Amino acid sequence: MELIIDSSNIEQIKELNELLTITGVTTNPTILTKSNREAMDVVKDLCEVLSEEQLLFIQTVQTSFEGIMEEAKMISSIRNKNISIRNKNMYVKIPVTHEGLRAIKECKKLGIHTLATAIYTADQAFLAAMNGAEYLAPYTNRMCNYGDGVQNVKDLIEMLRVNHMPAKVIAASFKNTYQVHELIKAGIQAVTVPCDVLYQMIDHPGTKIAVGEFSVNWQRAYNRNTLEK
C-alpha cells in the first residue's frame, strides 16, 4: 500500500517523511492556499523535500477543457526543465467534471499521468479509470454525508478488481483514523492522509506511558539511562 501525505505544510511533511515510509504528497487548491504563500513557491519547496522517486500530485485550477489541458501540460513538466518531457512521478489532479473527464482522456493520449479527484461515487471513479486515470481519489469523509462513504470506497476497490482495471484507489478526505484503518483492512492501494490524522495514527498515550515505565525501572535497577556502563 502507498502512504501519501495530503498537505502543503513543509515542516510537517519533512518530519513525517523522516518518520514514515512515504510514497509522496498530494495537494489541491485549498491546501495550497492554507500555506499563506505563493502556490508555486510551495510546489518548488515540495520538489526539494521529496526525492525523485516520490510522487507529487498538483491539481489544475482552471475549469474549462482548454484551461485544464494547458495547466496539465505545465504541471506534468514541473520536475523537468524541458516542458515537453513528462516526469513519471509528477501527477496532475483533475476533478471528475464533464470537462475534467474529457481532459483525463486527452491526458492519457499525451502520456500525462493523472489522478481523478473530487469523486463522490464509485461510479464516477470507475468512469474516470476507463478514461485512463491512474489514481482515483474518492472523498471518503465527504461521501459519508451522502451515505456510507467507507463502504462506497470498498465497492470501488472491488469494481476495479473484478474488471481487471489497473487504476489505483487513493482514498482522500479523511477526518479520523477509523476511516483509514477500515480501508487499509479492505486492501486499498493507497491513502492520502492529512498530517494531523497521520500523527494520530502514530501517537498513543499508552506508548508514552510504557516508555516512561521502562526508563524508571532501568534507572532504579542500574542507576543509568544507557544499555551499557
Keyword list:
single chain, alpha/beta, TIM Barrel, eight-stranded parallel beta barrel, 11 helices, 16% strand
Quick synopsis:
This protein is of the alpha/beta class and 229 residues long. Helices cover 49% and strands 16% of the residues.
Strand content: 15-25%
Structural class: alpha/beta
How far is the first residue's CA from the last residue's CA? 42 Å
Sheet with the most strands? Answer: 8 strands, parallel, barrel
SSE string, helices as H and strands as E: EHEHHEHEHEHEHHEHEHH
- The main sheet orders its strands as 1-2-3-4-5-6-7-8
CATH architecture term? Alpha-Beta Barrel
Radius of gyration: 20 Å
Query: Would you identify the CATH H-level superfamily?
Result: Aldolase class I
Give the overall average pLDDT.
95
Number of helices: 11
* Annotated CATH topology: TIM Barrel
Description:
The chain has helices at residues 10-19, 29-33, 39-49, 65-76, 98-110, 122-130, 140-143, 149-162, 177-185, 195-202, 205-222; strands spanning 2-6, 24-26, 55-59, 90-95, 114-119, 135-138, 168-171, 190-193. The chain is 49% helix and 16% strand. It has 229 residues and is an alpha/beta fold. The chain contains eleven helices and eight strands. Helix 4 (65-76) crosses helix 5 and helix 6 (122-130) runs parallel beside helix 8. It has an eight-stranded parallel β-barrel, surrounded by seven helices. The N and C termini lie far apart (42 Å). Helix 6 links the parallel strand 5 (114-119) and strand 6. It has one domain: Aldolase class I (TIM Barrel). The longest helix is centred in the C-terminal third of the chain and has 18 residues, at 205-222. The mean pLDDT is 95.
